[in-house]
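User: I'll paste a sequence; please echo it back and then give the predicted structure.

Assistant: Echoing your sequence first, then the prediction.
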Amino acid sequence: MKRREVSAHPEATIADSEYSLADIQRKQAKPMRWVVFILAALLAIVVPYGLGRTLAIHHTAGVLRLVSGLDPRGIALIAWTVTLVAFVGLGMSIIESSSWFWRVLFVVGIAAEQLIAGLCLLKFNFWYGTYVIYQQSSVLANAANLGILAAGLSVAVFAVLFVAILIGVRKDSPLNTLTHSWSALTMFFVIELAAILIVLFGGLIN
C-alpha cells in the first residue's frame, strides 16, 4: 500500500477574514452596474420607438426619401438582423454576466430595433397603420415589421423547444446533446434562419 502524505501543519494556514461569504458576494455583485444597465435598456426601448413614430407621422416624406430606393426583402433582412443582434446580446449578457460588451451590444441592438419599429408603426394591426401613413409604400414598412416579428417569434419557438427538451428528454438520450451550449446556439440560429427565409421567399412580403 502507498502511504499518503498528510499536512503536518497543526494550525490552519489561511488567515481569518472579517467578511462573510454573503459580504463577499454582495461586494462582487456591484448592483449599481445592473441598475445602470436596466435604466439604459428601458431608455433604449422607449425613446427610439417614440422618435421613430414621430418621424413616421410628422416627417413621412423625408422617411420615404431615405428608404424608397431599398428593396422590401433588404429592409426585412436589416430589421431581422438588428433584432437578432439585440436578442443575442441579451442572451450572452445573462450567460457572460461579467462582460459589459454583450450588455452594450444589447442596448445598441434594442435601440436600433425600436427605432425601426417606431418608423414602421409596429403593433398588432400594423398593416392598417402603415397603409394610412405610407400609402403605396407601406410594403416597405410591412417588410421591416415582418423581419422584426420573424426574429421575435423564432426566439419564442426556440424557448419552447429548449424547455421541452429539458423536461421531456432523458439524460441518456441522444437528443440531450441539444441542451449543450453550442448545440443549443446552433439550434437557435437554425430556427432564426428558417424564419427569415420564410419571410423573404414565402410570399408574405408581397
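Residues 62 and 178 are 47 Å apart (CA to CA). The first helix runs from residue 21 to 29.
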